[in-house]
Amino acid sequence: MIFWRNFKDIILSLLYPKNKIYIVSYPNSGRTWLKHMLWEIFEQLDVQAHNIEFTHDNSEIIIEDGTRIDPNTIFKFTSRYKYLRAKVIFLCRDPRDIITSNYHQVTKRAKNPFSFNNKSEFIQNEVLGFKRIIHFFNLWANNKSIPNKFLLIRYENLLSGINELENVLSFMNINADKQLITKVYNGSSADKMRIKEKNNQIKGFTNFGKEVNQMKVRKAKKGSYLSELSVDDINYCNNEMSRLNKYFKYKI
Fold this sequence. Notes:
The chain is of the alpha/beta class. 45% of the residues lie in helices and 8% in strands. The chain contains twelve helices and four strands. A four-stranded parallel β-sheet has the order 2-1-3-4. Helix 2 links the parallel strand 1 (21-25) and strand 2 (52-55).
């Protein structure tokens, strides 16, 4: 089964254009924000984005239309030969902040959402919870040499200023001046995006409610898990963080 899956992925890689750009992330890692900024810049530069694809690479467990993804796929198939001829940007975020937002995503931002008795039940679920994030990150750390080119970017660095966004554009061979990048970055702050979402001004956003935990643009903060998770859940996550590949450099 694994052999045939890998064989299929190698064939798929030959069908896609060489150096197609994939932006890979676990849900709630900041993909929507990054995508919005890139699309704004591309529109200003009249750049076509047909060779760029955003993907969660089978890490999601539910999508907003209510479709539930087989949660075991990323545990069964751990090679990434589909990306053999591609360029991959991997957007990471502190897994503890991811799980904090992901709980609200899977329980509030989907038709037929998941239901758990409490956050702990979700976080400590062997397949759906925190261990899933660690597995996905480690999977990509082990596969980062497969694509033609690979770039790791951090949500935390995106929060700090335009440098990480400049790194993304450079990797894509997109020439944009600093003034334009700064203008788009400043116009895409979480506060401004949240106001636009409340007023239904962002194309492609589904309205599941206007309470902060029902929104696509939630708190957008570094370290939000410290105030949103229980001490027991933080300790659980920190224990699991010891298995995270050192490549990501997140401290416990």
